[in-house]
Amino acid sequence: MQDYESMVVVTGDGRYRLELVPAFGRVTNSLIHTAADGSQTALIAGLHSRADLELDRYFRGVALYPFVNRLKDGCYVHNGKRFQFALNEPALGNSLHGFLYKQRPRVEQERSSQQEAEVTLVWRYAGDVPAYPFAAEVRLHCHLHSEHGLTLSFTVKNLHHQPVPLAIGWHPFFTLGQKLDELWLQLPPVNRIEVNERLLPTGASRRFDRFDQATAIGDLGLDDCMELLDTGQERASTLLCSPKTGQGIEIWQMTAEYPYLQVFTPPDRLSIAIEPVSGGINCFNTGRHLRLLGSDEVFAARCGVRMMPTGR
Predict the structure, then answer these.
(1) How far apart are CA 286 and CA 132, in angstroms?
(2) Are 118 and 150 in contact (CB under 8 A)?
(3) Which domains are delineated in the chain?
(4) For 98-120, what is each residue's pLDDT tens digit?
(5) Interior/surface letters 105-122, b for 16+ CB within 10 angstroms, e for the rest
């Protein structure tokens, strides 16, 4: 029996079903696709007990704000003042993924029809975290469509009286119900950011073409930040597919808004994190695609996922 509070959004025809767990910051705890023949496929691998949600080390399904990935020593300087976050990756001396996942949003809007369903989550952040004392309104609009899948529209409005630094992202884990060793991956054209022993950027990057075409993941382990190459396209897609079943997942991101993606294979190898993010590792200190948002200015970014047949 489920022992945690959740909310479910379903298209009227039942084609897509999204589960959210706002109390634990999971804006996408699971996503299930139902085919015309009634067969179901889990696209997003979530957690399904209170204990697992409380003990989760991998930030499954959370929205990332006000920074993404790793922040060196948990600190940064803004307008000549030093700010310090808690180190939630103490072994490497880093902070990870901001704090939005710790705050419960309110549900502002729900709507459904035969082919669509949507919900809007709103965080009215008062600037009460000392490491980031900058008020903001953060909104996440989740839109399901029977044909186009899930679209996530993330907006941040700066309610502070001065410009503030930020980065945003999404941290889903994808699955096709098989071990990663049996799946194939295709990435858009990318450079891989080179990192040191603390998984912080060295300042170098190198072309990574292993998955330019759909290629078996095999036993490869990944925990890598990829910077999208400028191909002139407004949208970039990552594909995860199963040669065994002929099924595939497309994870897409708008390139100007999300110029990076992080790819991570957890130890159990039952899913893979493919994370669209707006800034690079430690961007509060390196400045790599760091957004400086003016007072009352809004930053918006879109990404999404859909089921797609790949053929056998």
Answers:
(1) 18
(2) no
(3) 7-309 (2.70.98.10)
(4) 999 999 999 988 898 999 999 99
(5) beeeeeeeeeebbbbbbe
